[in-house]
Design a protein that fits this description.
Blueprint (H helix, E strand, L loop, with lengths): L36 H8 L27 H30 L12 H33 L5 H15 L5 H8 L3 H14 L6 H9 L11 H5 L2 H13 L19 H27 L3
Helix pairs in contact: 1-2, 2-3, 2-10, 3-6, 3-9, 3-10, 5-6
Length: 291
């Protein structure tokens, strides 16, 4: 079984940056309304003055694999993340348009204002949270099928069992699993928990903890694709743990913050989401081989 073709919306297999688009007509006045997600999207899609603004657009995800129920929960988590990050980029566009309307030059050249910076930071955090949610769901639903036959997923599961048996002190959870009426189910549950209980801490963690347990080969997703997410994970940690604040110097002034560049954030988020999409589609291929 293979995923349904993406067709006209085909996305490059490599981690490509999404394209920013501009449109050329007279600027649209911004009415005084509450900024909801619907309003943000409507205004963001309206015509704009040429050269002033750039709307950030993620790569489309294409169609999800069919006849593969194990990947459906992960796919919809990915779609929800894609929608949420798109909404943040639409809101960013609206904020910048609104600010441009209040200037005499009707332009937004120069460094992004703090509210726009925070929207970029939120896009990084949302992407990271969605990556965790989608990949963890993929592991939870796909691994039980993948370990039924010989292969990398099965050997990784058996290695986990061997490590528990040979540990200097056997864990209480492992002992309880052995004593259960259905030890296999309990042991599998412990294995899945070990793969999904924590956020992915970097590209190597994502590749070793998710890629290997799902049987993803280097031919399916090359190591360099995972390595390319290192800047994304660094940015995620900077935002999630320090809100991009820098330095520990004494003083009365606010600490400086890292300045995020729109195209850099778009590129990082897009790479992460497209890699998750490919993890899902390649896992569907591996599942087809086990049916």
């Amino acid at each position: 079984m293979t995923p349904e073709p993406i067709g006209s919306e085909k996305v490059a297999d490599s981690a490509s940056a999404a394209q920013a688009t501009t449109q050329s007509t007279a600027p649209v006045p911004i009415p005084s309304v509450t900024i909801t997600a619907e309003v943000a999207k409507a205004v963001a899609q309206a015509p704009e003055e040429p050269g002033n603004l750039t709307k950030l657009v993620l790569s489309p995800l294409g169609s999800r694999p069919r006849k593969c129920p194990e990947v459906v929960p992960a796919w919809w988590r990915l779609v929800s993340t894609h929608d949420s990050v798109t909404g943040l980029f639409d809101t960013l566009h609206l904020v910048r348009r609104t600010r441009a309307e209040k200037t005499t030059t009707k332009t937004t050249r120069g460094r992004l204002h703090s509210d726009a910076q925070d929207l970029l930071r939120a896009a990084i955090v949302f992407t990271s949270a969605g990556l965790d949610a989608a990949v963890q769901a993929l592991i939870h639903h796909a691994v039980p099928t993948l370990i039924a036959l010989p292969g990398t997923p099965r050997s990784k599961y058996e290695t986990f069992i061997d490590e528990q048996v040979r540990a200097p002190k056997t864990g209480e959870d492992f002992l309880l699993a052995l004593k259960a009426q259905d030890p296999r189910a309990e042991l599998l549950g412990l294995y899945l928990q070990s793969k999904t209980k924590a956020s992915f801490q970097g590209s190597s963690d994502l590749r070793s903890r998710a890629g290997s347990s799902l049987g993803i080969t280097n031919q399916q997703i090359p190591k360099r694709r995972f390595d390319a997410l290192d800047p994304f994970f660094t940015a995620r940690n900077d935002v999630a743990h320090r809100l991009d604040m820098e330095g520990f110097e004494l003083g009365g002034a606010k600490p400086p913050k890292k300045i995020r560049i729109q195209q850099d954030v778009l590129h990082m988020c897009d790479q992460a989401l497209i890699l998750v999409r490919d993890l899902i589609t390649k896992t569907a291929v591996n599942l087809a081989d086990h049916r």
